[in-house]
Amino acid sequence: MNHLCYQLFSCFGGPPDDRDNIIAATAAANARQSNAAAGASGDGRPEVLLDSRHMAPDCVIVKAGKRLCGSGAVLATAPLAQDKSYFEVKLQAAGRWGVGVASRKEDLAAVPLGNENSWVLRSDSTTWHKQQLGSVDVKFEEGDVLGFSYDHVELNIFHNGKALNCPIIGVRGTVYPAFYVDEGAILDVIFHTFVHTPPTGFTEIMLEKNIL
User: Which domains are present in the chain?
Assistant: First the structure.
């Protein structure tokens, strides 16, 4: 049984009991990845999801395009095009992870992100773009919810609703929410119906065709 199958079963929240169950879980994940690529909700409305067309080969997307596990990085299906946008992520399982923004030029198989085309917070509480930019005095735990607000000037980070006051500046070009996992980490993305109230003036990511 390969390692990726075991990681996949962890994504669904259960142990890898037998081969048949793992095969069934793999098929379900593939179906969900197709839905994520389409970017449509159950009733046909377009929505922002994890994008299976822009992810590392060893990533696995489940939970209708809202959970990331495996190894590598993935972008969201929509860029941060509006003036003020906000999204959240829940730390579902510990491991090595990172969250921030990246362009489609980023190598999504090369984790950790924080390189030429990405700006991220890493699981070791540091922020990166080509080099370490700063750090936050927080030890992240399973169940934490991180919020990210972006206004084309700063990418600000929130921990369980509290601002960390460590803005990432200098983001350039068209960027997308970006997430990476490794070493057993699982991330649940939240693009609407947030756990915490966004900062004043910030809203969920809008699809470009809906921006006036």
Answer: 3-210 (2.60.120.920)
